[in-house]
Design goal:
Blueprint: E1 7-11, H1 27-45, E2 50-56, E3 64-70, E4 75-79, H2 90-101, E5 109-113, H3 120-128, E6 131-137, E7 140-142
Length: about 160
């Protein structure tokens, strides 16, 4: 059996989206991209090194898109513009995190950017799946303290 390796190509942040280019952009996708832009601006404002990647898995014709990887804190970031689980919702975003994480340096923390604070059940699901949910707060983005990874060396929490 041919033991090919996946191809990982770094691309400019914000130039590629995990959405079929031949499809009209839905309201959900517009909202998700806006949330991604807000989180990107927040992270860049804190001096984080952000990257995006195109990935071609070994032996596959598919191309996967990592829209945002926080290289400063080794965080794979996926956005979800709804708290609903079905459709293009939380389950899809969690599956995207699981799929993409296989190709990135380990250990990477999975971050799910949500439009609002999740309820306790969704927060519990994220905890079980080792995902840190974050959402817009008064000073940028926030998360529950018990889900936050340790602070970085300069004392700033890595949200």
């Amino acid at each position: 059996m041919d033991q090919q390796k996946p191809v990982l190509e770094e691309v400019p942040v914000g130039m590629h989206f995990d959405y079929p280019a031949d499809q009209p952009v839905t309201t959900y996708e517009q909202d998700r991209r806006e949330l991604l832009g807000r989180y990107t601006s927040f992270a860049q404002g804190r001096g984080r090194l952000l990257k995006s990647y195109l990935i071609r898995p070994a032996g596959s014709t598919d191309q996967l898109v990592v829209e945002l990887f926080d290289a400063t804190h080794a965080q794979l970031v996926v956005t979800c513009a709804t708290l609903q689980r079905g459709g293009p919702g939380v389950w899809y975003a969690m599956g995207t995190l699981a799929d993409l994480a296989r190709f990135l340096p380990s250990p990477a923390r999975n971050v799910l950017v949500l439009p609002t604070e999740p309820d306790s059940d969704l927060d519990g699901l994220c905890t079980i799946r080792s995902i840190m949910p974050v959402w817009p707060g008064t000073d940028g983005f926030t998360s529950h303290l018990e889900n936050e990874p340790p602070s970085d060396p300069i004392g700033e929490p890595p949200l």
